[in-house]
Design a protein that fits this description.
Largest sheet: 7 strands, mixed
Radius of gyration: 30 Å
Helix content: 25-40%
Strand content: 15-25%
Shape: elongated
Number of strands: 22
Number of helices: 15
Distance between the termini: 14 Å
Length: 482
C-alpha cells in the first residue's frame, strides 16, 4: 500500500499553518493506494478537465462536475448539473453542507471527507437568525442591538419590542401598534439622511425591526464627550437633519421625537435621523384609532418637546420637529439644555411659557447669525418658526461646514453594553429583564458580564483558504483504470 499526500502549503506559512484547521477528500483505490486531496481553500473545482483543482479522469465525470466551497459556516458541495450526479452519503444532491466523515461519490470515485473545520456560525447569543454583538441603546419601546448575520457576515441594528410596557398607563397592545407604525414609517422614508428600516419580523418569542447599522456616534454622546461643538459643524448637523425632516414632512408624517440621541453622526460627518417610535403618520387610520383610545397624550421627550405637541400630540405638523431640532442644536452649541428644570412637568411649562437663554450669552464664540437661526426654530408660536425643513436647510447652508468626527465604534458598542449591564445588575431595575424577549434575557445578562465584547465570528485565515489556489498546476489526477 502506498500513501500519496497531495497538498502544498507555502513555506512562508511554516508549521504554524500546518497545525491549524485541515480538510481533505480521501480516496482509496482498489489496490490500497490513498490519495489525500487538500481542500482547505475557498473553492475546489472537481472534474475531468486538467484545469480542475481535483482532476478525475473518467467517462463518468464531467469536465466541471462539482465544486466544494468554504465559508464562515464550513464546507458545501455543489453539483454543476452533471449527467451522472454527485452523491453524499448515498443521496444525490444539488447542494448540501459537508460534515466530517461524510462519503462523497463523484462518478466512479468515492471519497471520505475529513476536516477539523467547525461551523461557528451558531455560537454566541442569537435573536432569531442574528448573533448579538453588542447593545446600541435602550428606549421606551425596546432594546436596540448590534447584530451580525452569520450567513453573510453583514452587520445590522435590530430593535426588539419589549414584552411589557414600562409605563403603567401604556397598554402593551398600544406599544405593539406603535412598533408596527415605526416599521411602516421607517420603510416608507428612504433618504440618505434617514436610517433605513429593512424589515419587520414577528416570532412567537420575539418581535423586531431590522435596521441598517450606521457606525456612528449620536449627538448626545458627542456633546458629552467634547462639550460645545464648533458652530460651523453644528450648522452642518442642522442642515442635514433639516433635509431629512423635510423628506418626512413631505410624506405627511411628523417625527415627534427629534432630539440629540436620535441624530447619528458618522465618521465622515454624515448625519442620519433615527427612531420613528413616536411618528405621526398623518391620516393613518391606525394612528387615529390610537388617538381615540389613548386620548391626546403628551408624546415626546420633555427636554425637546414643542409647546403645541405637549398640549395635543396629534394636532401637530412638521414645525414641531423644527422646534425639537432647535433645542437639540441649542445643546450642541452651548453644552446646556434650554430649560434644565427639575422634572418633566416643569420642563414642559418652561417650553410653553419661557424664552430660552441667549445662545451667545452662554457661548460667545457662536456667531450671532447662527444663534438667530436656532432661536427662530425655538419660537413658541409655530407661525414664527421656519415653516419647512427646506427653508431651515437653506438658512444653515451659508454657515455649514462638514468635518470628520473621531469615532471608535467598537468602543462605543462596548460602552453602551456596559451601561446596559448596570440596569441588569441593579435589583431595582430587574423589570428591564421582564420587558425583553425570554430567549434574549439570559443571553443579555451573560453578554454584559463579559469584560470584552468583540467579534465572536470565527473565520478561516485568508492565507490558508486561498493558499493552494495560488500555486500553479495545483491539480490531482486519480485514475479509475487500475
Amino acid at each position: 500500500m502506498t500513501d500519496q499526500t497531495d497538498y502544498s502549503i507555502p513555506t512562508s506559512l511554516g508549521n504554524q499553518t500546518a497545525t491549524r484547521d485541515s480538510a481533505f477528500l480521501v480516496h482509496e483505490s482498489p489496490r490500497g493506494g490513498i490519495t489525500r486531496k487538500n481542500v482547505l481553500r475557498t473553492t475546489t473545482l472537481i472534474g475531468s478537465h486538467e484545469t480542475c483543482n481535483l482532476q478525475l479522469i473518467s467517462s463518468q465525470v464531467e469536465p466541471s462536475h462539482c465544486v466544494l466551497t468554504l465559508d464562515g459556516r464550513g464546507f458545501r458541495i455543489w453539483d454543476l448539473r452533471s449527467r451522472t450526479g454527485t452523491f453524499v452519503n448515498g443521496i444525490k444532491i444539488r447542494s448540501t453542507r459537508l460534515q466530517h466523515g461524510d462519503e462523497v461519490r463523484i462518478g466512479s470515485f468515492t471519497f471520505k471527507f475529513e476536516t477539523t473545520v467547525k461551523d461557528h456560525s451558531r455560537e454566541g447569543f442569537f435573536i432569531d437568525d442574528y448573533r448579538v454583538i453588542g447593545i446600541l441603546g435602550t428606549g421606551g419601546m425596546g432594546w436596540l442591538y448590534a447584530v451580525e448575520d452569520p450567513r453573510t457576515q453583514e452587520k445590522f441594528a435590530l430593535k426588539v419590542l419589549m414584552r411589557r410596557a414600562n409605563h403603567p398607563n401604556v397598554d402593551q397592545q398600544e406599544l405593539r401598534t406603535r412598533f408596527l407604525l415605526e416599521g411602516e414609517a421607517g420603510g416608507r422614508h428612504k433618504h440618505p439622511n434617514i436610517i433605513s428600516v429593512l424589515e419587520y419580523q414577528y416570532r412567537s418569542d420575539v418581535e423586531y425591526l431590522l435596521l441598517e447599522l450606521f457606525e456612528s456616534i449620536d449627538l448626545q454622546e458627542l456633546i458629552q464627550r467634547d462639550g460645545p461643538l464648533d458652530p460651523a459643524f453644528v450648522c452642518s448637523v442642522g442642515l442635514q437633519a433639516a433635509k431629512a425632516l423635510h423628506h418626512i414632512h413631505l410624506a405627511g408624517s411628523v417625527h415627534r421625537d427629534v432630539k440629540p440621541s436620535n441624530l447619528l453622526i458618522g465618521e465622515n460627518g454624515l448625519v442620519k435621523v433615527c427612531d420613528f417610535g413616536l411618528v405621526l403618520l398623518g391620516n393613518d387610520p391606525v394612528e387615529a384609532e390610537l388617538a381615540e383610545q389613548m386620548g391626546k397624550d403628551c408624546l415626546g421627550t420633555a427636554d425637546y418637546i414643542a409647546p403645541e405637541q405637549s398640549r395635543d400630540s396629534y394636532d401637530v405638523d412638521g414645525r414641531a420637529d423644527i422646534y425639537g431640532l432647535g433645542c437639540a442644536l441649542f445643546l450642541a452649541l452651548t453644552g446646556k439644555l434650554p430649560f434644565p428644570a427639575e422634572n418633566s412637568s416643569e420642563k414642559i411649562r418652561a417650553h410653553r411659557r419661557l424664552s430660552p437663554p441667549r445662545i451667545t450669552d452662554l457661548n460667545p464664540k457662536v456667531p450671532s447669525e447662527i444663534s438667530a437661526i436656532v432661536h427662530r426654530c425655538m419660537e413658541k408660536d409655530p407661525k414664527d418658526r421656519y415653516q419647512s425643513g427646506k427653508e431651515l436647510a437653506a438658512a444653515f447652508t451659508p454657515y455649514a461646514k462638514i468635518r470628520k468626527v473621531r469615532i471608535n465604534f467598537q468602543d462605543l458598542i462596548a460602552k453602551r453594553t456596559h451601561q446596559a449591564s448596570f440596569r441588569l445588575a441593579d435589583p431595582r431595575k430587574k423589570h428591564y429583564l421582564q420587558r425583553i424577549p425570554a430567549n434574549v434575557a439570559s443571553s443579555l445578562a451573560a453578554i454584559t458580564s463579559e469584560e470584552h465584547i468583540g467579534n465572536e465570528h470565527t473565520v478561516i485565515d485568508g492565507r490558508q483558504a486561498g493558499a493552494a489556489t495560488r500555486i500553479p498546476g495545483d491539480t490531482s489526477a486519480a485514475r479509475d483504470a487500475y
